[in-house]
Amino acid sequence: MSGLTTKVSDDHGGGALITVQPGTPLDVLDRSSVMETLADAGFLLLRGFAASLSEFSRLVWRMSDRITLDPARSLHGGVAQKVDAGLDAIGLHCENGNSPFMPHLCWFFCERAAAVGSETTVCDGYRVWDALTPAAQRAFLDRDIVYSRHVEAAKWKGFVYHSLQGKKEIEDITLEDLLSLADGRPGTVIRASAGGSIYYEFQVPAARKTLFSGRIAFANSLLGPSHNYEKPRITFADREEIPPSLLSEVVRVTEAMTLDIAWQNGDVLLVDNTRVMHGRRAILDPRRTIYNALSFIR
Predict the structure, then answer these.
(1) I need a labelling partner for 178 at 20 to 30 A (CA). Which of 40, 84, 195, 245 fits?
(2) Residues 256, 296: Cα–Cα separation, whole Å
């Protein structure tokens, strides 16, 4: 990527900062180089580019093989969704990590940075895994975790509608369409519930191999939010509760490994969603405007 400066962090947060001469278009970014850097660093902060919402959307399309979404958020330009999950702090999580439809990549675009605080947080699952005690590692290797909850009709049908790329009218979408999308995804149980909602259970390791490597990362949604959804129940796969002492260790280690992203206008953040968890500090400036996009690569 000629004319770009890439700096890989050596601190506890990891990641890479890619900077350019102000006004450089995002189009100069080469997909193979970006993915190679992402595989090494876990997340990339792109700073100094002439970025707009439309250019951000074009970048996501160009770098991805398939786009997905969160049906609880408003959609802008077919790709970007405005981050509107209230003002409270949000715990570390993988985007859609508590469902069978977790994307590979999570993208953010800062249209308007906060005047104070309101940082996005990132935490490298490789580093977390290495810092956990052997007993904690064994507990998570021996048993998967299970997320279970209800999702209302408008949300799961909106997800199916987008996934089918409008090939079926939303009022014609049935549970069979959702089951077809989930077909072949291990550990997934979906069934109809009251009022057109669904109930699902999703079994998955809390620590596993990543998109780019066979190395184990502690990357999950154990600490994550449920702002627009019913709070999921999270247990081990045998339905045993996760011990408070084990969760306390996860909180202690992840807090020590978390890095704050202090946004600047026009910043773009790309996260390997299979390796790096993200969250945010409490919003102190409600004028802060961040957009999110979710995608898959082969």
Answers:
(1) 84
(2) 29
Which CATH number does the domain housing residue 101 bear? 3.60.130.10
Is 279 contained in some domain? yes
Instruction: Tell me if 75 is assigned to some domain.
Output: yes
Residue 59 lies in a domain: yes
Around 283, how many Cα atoms within 13 Å sit in the side-chain half-sphere?
A: 15
* Rounded Cα distance, 198 and 195, in Å: 9
Question: Rounded to an integer, what is the distance from CA 70 to the centroid of its chain?
Answer: 10
Quote the domain boundaries for residue 48.
5-126+253-296
Q: Are 139 and 184 in contact (CB under 8 A)?
A: no
49-65 pLDDT tens trace: 999 999 999 999 999 99
- The structure tokens listed for 248 are 């306390």
Give 228's DSSP letter.
T
Residues 249 and 242: their CA atoms lie apart, in Å, by 12
Contact, 294 vs 95, CB < 8 A?
Answer: yes
Q: Any idea what DSSP says for residue 31?
A: H
Contact indicator for 64, 297 with CB cutoff of 8 Å? yes
What are residue 66's phi and psi, to 5 degrees?
-155, 140
